[in-house]
Amino acid sequence: MTTPFDHRMTVYGTDDQFLATALPFLTEGLNAAGEPPPVAIASPHNLALLRDALGADVKHVTLIDHAEWYTGSAANAVAQGAGYLAAHAGPGGRVHLLMEPVWNGRAGRSPREATEWIRYEALANLLFAPLATTALCAYDTRTAGPAIVDAARRAHPDTGVYEEPVRLVAELDAVPLAPPPPDAELLTELAADAVRDRARDRGLALADAELFGTAVAEAAEAVGQRAGTALLWGEGAQCVCELRSGRRVGDPLAGFVPPDAGGPAPGQGLWYARQVCAYVDVRDDRDGATVRLQYA
After folding, report:
1. Fold for the domain defined by 6-173
2. pLDDT digits (tens, 9 = 90+) for 218-233
3. What architecture (CATH level 2) is domain 185-294?
């Protein structure tokens, strides 16, 4: 797949190795005609290394603490990236982005979370394909283990082991979801306020229950389940709702493509659900689709 989007990966295990790749990349951005200042999204430690190494050139580089960029789920990172490019990139999306996920934080806290971030890396190749953006994703072996690094290589076209995004995402989704617990509650009303009330009864705080109820209703509308049954289980922020639709979704990008309007806002279907919930699993089968939403 050849696209304007230049999606690269670097792996390092020492400060010197980080600088050996990051500095030439940022210099490439500084020397690119017609581009805005390159951006380094990295840990405070690595930003300090860059400040020292760049010297006077640091004033021409935008430095962002990666904890301020990667503030939630992988779907939130898509929104952050799309918003930044719309506001700051040059014509056609031209800009150099050095990007270091928080692998010692949310992104690396569990195999489940790591899977979502590999999905994000894979789908970025499709989501940003039309843009002339150059991104270098930095993986620190001191925080991202070998399994994460090996998986990430398969999501970056410059590694030699790249897998087409749809194929890689299908492989991630081949791992079966855990079955609902035997005591899962049957819901027959999927309106936002009805789901909100049931989530409140399960200990979810009011503001969170409002968001979760709307996310479930938006997802149900998006997959064509305007009425019918769903399952709800979990307590507090761990509330989970599973929908069953007789219609296949069929699109690995469903809910990841940013809408024209800034969001999330009601009426944006699976995009809203992915922005609100920590996890939204969409699994097609021959009879339709299962959509599972977990709030946190």
Report:
1. Rossmann fold (3.40.50)
2. 999 999 887 677 999 9
3. 2-Layer Sandwich (3.30)
